[in-house]
Structures are given as structure tokens and as C-alpha cells.
């Protein structure tokens, strides 16, 4: 089934308030939706315009960003199609904003990672939560691919959902090969979720990335 012409997005601010604000593109987890993810809005920086975007593929009472061959393992043609769709949408909404950053949770982290790998120069920062980068999906991941990009990676080492081998590969690449300006935080007891202390760290991270103090 072809994707809708325009993604469904729930915005944290009214259209007239979006100009010049940093834009945060927020990507929910697999099987969720934009309305559930929009509950995070009060905990994100007030100066931001946050677009909580609905994934394009109906699944499990919610939506998914791509078809996969196992948890955290996107099919290359599927994640590429979604990336092209999202980039086309960004071309229509990004211009009034001072910058564009990414926030992705779980499957949304893999999607955000895919966008970063595809076009890293488009993004001022990325907050990646409880997930993995999209490995073996045909996206460029050579050394220095994210050179200079501020990246926040938050998780629980006991996350029961994301395969440990993918987490290990993600950590090694982000720390040693990506070139990103990485802030890594661990949240014992979080499981596979998002907690208020983590959101406070994300908000502080984004603020520093935007003002150049990170």
C-alpha cells in the first residue's frame, strides 16, 4: 500500500508559533502512534516546535516505520522508502525553523538513526532512546559519518526488548566510529521505556546543542 501523501503529525505548538523555533521531529515506537508519543511534549524544551509524526505502516493497533526481518532489523527497501517519504515532508515544513533535530524511541530510534545516516548534515542534534541503529539496511555507516553531530543515547542495560548484539554494535559504532559528539546515559530499572529523569537529560542536551555549548 502506498504511503499517504503527507505524514500525519501532531504539533506541540500552533502553526503561527512555529517560525524560528528549533524543530524536533519525534518518532514513536513500533505499534504506537503520534498521540501517545505527544504526551512527552510538556517535558521537552519550551522553545522547540515538536512534530510528533505518525509512522506510515499500520501494525498492531498502532503504526510502524518499516517492515523488518526481526526486532531492530529493518528491510532495506522499507526503511529507505520511509526515509524518502519523511525527507519529502521535511522539505515542506523545515524552512521556517532555525534547525531540525530528531527524537526517536525504540523503532523510532532505528528510524531516526536511518535519517541520520542518510543525510547527517540536515540535523542539528539527535536524541536516541532505547533502541538500535538500523544495521545492514543499505545505509552509509562508514567512519565519521556523523562527524560533529551532537547525539544523545539513553537506555537501560537490562532492556528486555532490543537484542543485545544490536545494542553492543550500536554502542561501539557511536563511541568509536561515528564521529558524533556523543552523550551516553544509562538508566537502571528503566526497562524498555522512557522516564522523567531521562527526558530532563534530553531537554538539557537539546538546549546545549542548540546554543552551541554541548
UniProtKB/TrEMBL annotation:
Similarity field: Belongs to the AB hydrolase superfamily. AB hydrolase 2 family.
Keywords: Hydrolase
Name of the protein in its database record: Phospholipase
Organism encoding this protein: Streptomyces diastatochromogenes
Domain Phospholipase/carboxylesterase/thioesterase: 13-206
MF (Gene Ontology): hydrolase activity
Xref: InterPro entries: AB_hydrolase_fold (IPR029058), LYPA1-2/EST-like (IPR050565), PLipase/COase/thioEstase (IPR003140)
Pfam family, one: Abhydrolase_2
Top-level taxon of origin: Bacteria
Amino acid at each position: 500500500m502506498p504511503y499517504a501523501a503527507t505524514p500525519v503529525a501532531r504539533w506541540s505548538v500552533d502553526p503561527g508559533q512555529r517560525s524560528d523555533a528549533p524543530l524536533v521531529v519525534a518518532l514513536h515506537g513500533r505499534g504506537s502512534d503520534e498521540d501517545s508519543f505527544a504526551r512527552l511534549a510538556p517535558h521537552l524544551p519550551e522553545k522547540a516546535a515538536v512534530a510528533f509524526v505518525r509512522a506510515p505502516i499500520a501494525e498492531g493497533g498502532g503504526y510502524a516505520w518499516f517492515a523488518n526481518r526481526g526486532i531492530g532489523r529493518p528491510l532495506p527497501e522499507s526503511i529507505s522508502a520511509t526515509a524518502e517519504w519523511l525527507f519529502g515532508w521535511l522539505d515542506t515544513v523545515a524552512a521556517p525553523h532555525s534547525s531540525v533535530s530528531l527524537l526517536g524511541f525504540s523503532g523510532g530510534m532505528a528510524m531516526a538513526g536511518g535519517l541520520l545516516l542518510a543525510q547527517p548534515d540536515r540535523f542539528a542534534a539527535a536524541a536516541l532512546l532505547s533502541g538500535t541503529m538500523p544495521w545492514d539496511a543499505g545505509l552509509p555507516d562508514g567512519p565519521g559519518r556523523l562527524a560533529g553531530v551532537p547525539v544523545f543515547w539513553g537506555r537501560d542495560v537490562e532492556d528486555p526488548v532490543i537484542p543485545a548484539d544490536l545494542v553492543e554494535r550500536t554502542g561501539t559504532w557511536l563511541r568509536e566510529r561515528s564521529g558524533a559528539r556523543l552523550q551516553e546515559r544509562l538508566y537502571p530499572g528503566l526497562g524498555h521505556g522512557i522516564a522523567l529523569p531521562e527526558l530532563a537529560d534530553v531537554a538539557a542536551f537539546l538546549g546545549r546543542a542548540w546554543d552551541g555549548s554541548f
